[in-house]
Design brief:
The chain is mainly alpha-helical. It is built from 2 helices and no strands.
Length: about 100
């Protein structure tokens, strides 16, 4: 395999890895923010004066938990893709080193 072809594969994989890492960071940040919102809602539920208010807060908490579950799925998938791409990158870098010798 030509060095330039291998180099282009490495460059593409590095970009994809950086994009996935950014995606994972963003989703973890969203997840942490949602967890903080849930904690606040749980504190507020204890102070609720009316059934309507309590019901509204419980509904919001349920929606946030569903959103967190979705983010967890995305994070699991992204982490798996990231590991695969990092393995391919290591493989391509090894090929490049061997062809350079």
């Amino acid at each position: 395999m030509a060095i330039s072809f291998t180099r282009s594969i490495i460059t593409r994989l590095e970009k994809e890895i950086a994009d996935l890492q950014k995606l994972v960071r963003e989703h973890k940040k969203k997840r942490d923010h949602m967890l903080a919102q849930i904690k606040q809602l749980q504190r507020d539920q204890k102070l609720s004066q009316s059934m309507n208010d309590l019901s509204s807060k419980i509904s919001r908490e349920v929606k946030l938990k569903k959103a967190i579950d979705e983010i967890d799925g995305i994070l699991a998938q992204s982490t798996k893709q990231l590991a695969e791409k990092q393995a391919r990158l290591a493989e391509q870098q090894q090929k490049q080193e061997q062809s350079a010798e």
